[in-house]
Automatic annotation (TrEMBL):
Sequence ranges of Basic and acidic residues compositional bias: 145-154
Domain of life of the native organism: Bacteria
Protein name (database record): SnoaL-like domain-containing protein
Region (Disordered): 143-164
Amino acid sequence: MDTIDAQITEYLTRYAETLTAFDARAAAQLWATPGMILDDRYAGVLDSREAMVEGLEQSYPLYRKLGLASVGYELLNQEQLSGAITMVRVRWLFYDADGNQLTDSNAHYILRQGDDGLQACVCVQTDDLEKLQAWRPSAVSTCRTRPDQRDHSAEASGPPRPRGLYRLGRRQAIVGWAGSSLSTTTCARDRGRIWSTYRRSPGMYFVR
């Protein structure tokens, strides 16, 4: 096996292990800074590992609730772009405690070889939101408010909500899914408030 092939295999194996262990700090070490996440609806740059750790950790409670117990992968394609840069296409596989596949997702990564070994610089996610919506939609509940609380969502000012999964939970609002990650924020009846929180916290959209 060529050296770069072995390094990519080792890198992806380590990445899957960090996701299985819900080890945000170990996963963040596999990223260069800044790191960029890109999909059809979102583009964001994470300029510190602390932001990456925060985003990953916020996704873990919901993953546990959905029954995620282990993560595997398939390397679908790789292309050497330069002496130090490789682009890979990966299919992540998500399993429950009995080894049953819950769902999968596909992503492209640009990896760069540096002093700390291979690290991801860019992740392009292609089908995360669709796969999540098909996975366990019943796990997302409807926001509950007291009878005396008025719902101002129809009157909210500001930009419209992002497309995709956007249901409110009892105390939290799911505002995004990014590959291995969902992100949550305090339940807000005003969609303008949720939007502003979403826009201020790009790290919350980060997953892998």
